[in-house]
UniProtKB/TrEMBL annotation:
PANTHER family linked to this entry: ADENOSINE DEAMINASE (PTHR11409), ADENOSINE DEAMINASE-LIKE PROTEIN (PTHR11409:SF42)
Keyword field contains Hydrolase: yes
Protein species of origin: Coniosporium apollinis
Cofactor(s) annotated in UniProt: Zn(2+)
UniProt domain Adenosine deaminase: residue ranges: 32-286
Protein name: Adenosine deaminase domain-containing protein
Domain of life: Eukaryota
Family to which this protein belongs: Belongs to the metallo-dependent hydrolases superfamily. Adenosine and AMP deaminases family.
Amino acid sequence: MVVRRYVPLFFPLFSSYIYKLCSDIPSIEYTTNAVLNDFQSDNVVYLELRTTPRAIPQAGITKSTYIHTILSCIAQHNNNPNNTLHTNLILSIDRRHTLVEAREIVDLALSFRPYGVVGIDLCGDPSISDARTLSPAFVHAKKEGLKITLHFAEAPASSSDEELWTLLGWQPDRLGHVIHVERDSAVAREIVRRKLGLELCLSCNVHAKMLVGGAGYGEHHFGWWRDLGVSIALGTDDVGVFCSELSEEYRITAEHFGLGREDVKELCKSAVGVIFGSAAEKERLRTLYAS
Ligand SMILES: CNc1ncnc2c1ncn2[C@@H]1O[C@H](COP(=O)(O)O)[C@@H](O)[C@H]1O
């Protein structure tokens, strides 16, 4: 099933179905391994997975056990010399969370940092628009050196100037979606000035009709952001929901924006500078792209 409408269908997918299916250690391991194997099979060489830590008391799972389970699958995959894919983990804070819950996720991210957590994210239903209450958690994360990425200007409800400047005040390293940022706005200029990396998910935005006027691939904001010279990492948002692997996202982008092989390579190379992985990981990727 490809989600054709945004908020009313998309978010309940997780709470009504997926969370009920991923409700014990074996199902969390199964899905994590399936995701890693799928990205490896798609010839992806670097992945930043993100998940919202979830306690499942009836299965004896705490948020810490949940993260540990996923990190163990990632470590096993990363340590297999047959795999070219390297993966790191980002922990998401959801807009529905309280400040106490958000702070707890930051603390978990800090304690699991030596085991592959590289940063935190703000995700969730953008119609829950006031993210200001979560500010102290993100400010603390930044102070402690965690990387920050944010679902940013994803829907009109989460795109007021006040909200966007609040989010920029958290000093994020990357921004996702950036759909409702006006082309010549002060926010757009600030994103360029700070050289923030952008995470763009074309299929998700088109299928879920998130673009203004239900626009298609050709009118996607990828085009004008690319012209501004910012680093762009294409993403899938969720392969299971939008039915498009990462290689397909690059193919679609190449088709609609007239990119040749070298352009696609340049696009991948420019994303290396904004990954949350280590200097050694960046070096590995640069070497790979140079070959
Ligand atoms: C349109 N794009 C999006 N916008 C905002 N949040 C999104 C999202 N895609 C996914 N999520 C967030 O990821 C959670 C599911 O996985 P985890 O439980 O974290 O592993 C969803 O509940 C949602 O909050």
